[in-house]
Amino acid sequence: AKNEGRNSLYFFSSSLSEGIRERLLLENDLRHAVERNQLVLHYQPQIDLHSGRLVGVEALLRWEHHQLGILSPDRFIPLAEQTGIIGEVGSWVLQEACRQIIQWDREDCYIPRVGVNLAVQQIESGLLVRQVKAAMQQAGIQGERLELEVTESTIMREPDKATEAMKAFRNLGIKLTIDDFGTGYSSLAYLKRLPLDRLKIDRSFVMDIGAHSGNEAICRTIINLARSLGLETVAEGVEEQHHADFLQREGCDIAQGYFYSKPLPPDELAEQCKAWVKSSEC
Ligand code: C2E
Ligand code: CA
Ligand code: CA
Ligand code: CA
């Protein structure tokens, strides 16, 4: 992809220089985003398909840019990764998620677990385990309250470091999930060796449930693979009732998506959470 970019530079130099200018501006702003308190986490509920209960939330990063408004991670995470800023950003995300868990606890809104996405550089750095421990200690939470999501490509790029970190996380009681499962290449031998808890079925497969029998077969296969490895399955991108019905029928454990809720700012999530608890008590 890097080479493609370089070639197109020659052919489309005038339009690309515009793009490069924007990129440089964004990069410069991103360097200050943490200290200027412009980063926020939104949280998307995860529902247990067996009990209907809220079992956790996934933390999803947003950047409140002073001129451009709220930017979604696809606009700046790749940039953060290419420039190394992801180290600082990732560390902030961990601290903020841990802090938020305790704040919700104090507001009598018990969120069992918060999932955090990890970038490959965080694993490469060798600092991750220490960072996670520090964030937990600073907030005063146990590992049971955290889940870490890594993609197959992250694991496969740094298999030894990933395995080592994951073992340390397992010892802390943190749940470990493979994100976007089915879109990368993971060796089944690794899957068996890693201390994993969950496979997260990628949105692209879930989206086509009811429309594309091949993708239904993929969902079914992932659910069965997970079961035979003793892992739970989470489906992301559940948008419709019939997606949820299919997944429940096939034995998927947990669902997440717009059908239940979009990612919410922390105070809205707390309100939702209280409303859910009330309605399930009635
Ligand atoms: P992801 O981890 O696969 O997160 C799921 C994405 O799907 C989120 O996009 C979420 O808002 C979106 N989504 C949730 N439910 C639905 C649905 O029903 N339909 C559709 N169409 N989309 C749904 P978002 O928040 O824009 O995040 C995009 C990606 O950015 C994430 O994909 C993740 O890879 C990355 N990301 C987000 N936060 C962080 C972070 O703190 N650190 C790192 N390293 N990456 C992050
Ligand atoms: Ca994720
Ligand atoms: Ca995902
Ligand atoms: Ca994804």
TrEMBL record:
Residues 23-277 form the EAL domain. The chain holds residues 582 to 863 of 863 of the full protein. It comes from Thiohalophilus thiocyanatoxydans. This is cyclic-guanylate-specific phosphodiesterase. It comes from the Bacteria. The lineage of its organism: Bacteria, Pseudomonadati, Pseudomonadota, Gammaproteobacteria, Thiohalomonadales.
